[in-house]
Amino acid sequence: xxxxxxxxxxQKFELPAALKGFHPIGLFYLSYQNGRDYNSFLLKRxxxxxxxxxxxxxxxxxxxxxxxxxxxxxxxxAKYIYGKFHGKGNKAISSPYMEFGxxxxxxxxxxxxxxxxxxxxxxxxxxxxxxxSADVGVLFGSDFGxxxxxxxxxxxxxxxAGKYGSWQVGIYNxxxxxxxxxNKNKVVEGRVTIRPAP
Length: 198
What we know:
mainly beta, eight-stranded antiparallel β-sheet, 13% helix
C-alpha cells in the first residue's frame, strides 16, 4: 500500500551516502538602480561554495565571490578556502577553533553577523579599504562560558552565540582576499566581545 500524501510530504530529503557532510552555500545580491545618468540591473555580489565535514573535528570551506568591476565585467574569485579544527573546550573557553588558509578576519565577519541591515554591498570598513573580511593566514577563537540556548540561536542569532561573549585573533599576510601581499610584514587582528548579562 502506498503512503498517504501527507506522510510523503513530511519525509526529509536525504543526500546520497557519498555526499554526507556536504553543505552547499549560495547567496546573491541583485539590485536595480535608477538615477539621472544611469538605469541598470546590477549583480553586486554573489557567493557559491560548500562546507564539508571531513571528520568530527575538521571541516573545510570553499566559497567563491562573484563581483562586477567598474567596466561591468563579472569576475569570479575565491573568498574563503580554509580548513577548520574545532573542539568542545570547557566551561570557560567553549567551542575553540582554528581556521587556516584564506580565512575569516575577526572584525568584519562579526559585524556582518550582528548587522541585520546589510543588503547588497560590502560593509563600510571594507568598502573604504580600512579592513578586509578574509585574508591568507590563521585564525584562533572560541566562545566564553558555554553557548546561548537553542531558542536564542533559532530566534535571535546563531553566530558568535557564546553565553558571555567570544574572542578571535588572527595573523595574516595583509593583502586581503582580493590582493597579494605587498611587503614582508604580517598583520595581526583581534576582537573580544563581552555579553555581561546572558
